[in-house]
């Protein structure tokens, strides 16, 4: 958090030197968003509301200063990062996290007309909230259908790749 906040001095200097908006957006994604999202799948489930609020304040400040083209929402960014990694794990059997000790077993076909969960795995039984926040359990319990109905997830994915 401290290093991200210190980057705003750099942005102030770049704005003084009249760096254009597109370049500021690229620098912001490179220096700040990458710092926030690095390994976010491992810790995002354990963030407290105050931590998320602090991260959101940084993104709000960036929009207020005109460093980015669009408003970013921390929760959407973190969920998008989770979704991307979970899909990579499921689509690649050689992925290092695609192991029977990590991924739940494949569920047997049901005769009930239940909705599609977005994955073929059994739902994990989570007795404690701390266990539910583990990356694979969090992704198994969330389908992220709402992200795909909006255009934000597509933009966020392309913005984070930059």
Describe the structure in your own words.
The protein has 162 residues and is an all-alpha fold. It has two domains: 69 residues; 74 residues, no CATH class. The chain is built from nine helices and no strands.
Compact overview of the structure:
The chain has 162 residues and is mostly helical.
Q: Could you name the key traits of this structure?
A:
elongated, single chain, mainly alpha, 2 domains, 162 residues
Write the layout of secondary structure elements.
Elements: H1 2-16, H2 21-37, H3 40-43, H4 49-65, H5 74-91, H6 129-132, H7 135-141, H8 145-149, H9 152-161
Count every helix, treating DSSP H or I runs of 4 or more residues as helices. Answer: 9
How would you sum up the global shape? Answer: elongated
What class, by secondary structure content? Answer: mainly alpha
Instruction: State the domain count.
Output: 2
What Rg do the Cα atoms give?
Answer: 18 Å
């Amino acid at each position: 958090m401290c290093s991200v906040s210190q980057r705003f001095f750099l942005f102030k200097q770049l704005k003084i030197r009249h760096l254009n908006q597109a370049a500021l957006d690229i620098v912001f994604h490179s220096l700040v968003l990458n710092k926030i999202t690095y390994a976010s799948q491992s810790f995002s489930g354990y963030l407290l509301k105050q931590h998320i609020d602090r991260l959101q304040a940084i993104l709000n400040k960036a929009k207020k200063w005109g460093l980015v083209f669009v408003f970013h929402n921390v929760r959407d960014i973190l969920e998008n990062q989770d979704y991307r990694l979970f899909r990579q794990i499921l689509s690649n059997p050689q992925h290092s996290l695609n192991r029977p000790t990590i991924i739940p077993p494949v569920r047997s076909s049901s005769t009930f007309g239940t909705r599609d969960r977005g994955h073929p795995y059994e739902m994990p039984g989570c007795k404690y909230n701390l266990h539910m926040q583990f990356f694979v359990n969090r992704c198994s319990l969330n389908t992220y259908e709402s992200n795909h109905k909006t255009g934000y997830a597509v933009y966020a994915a392309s913005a984070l790749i930059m």
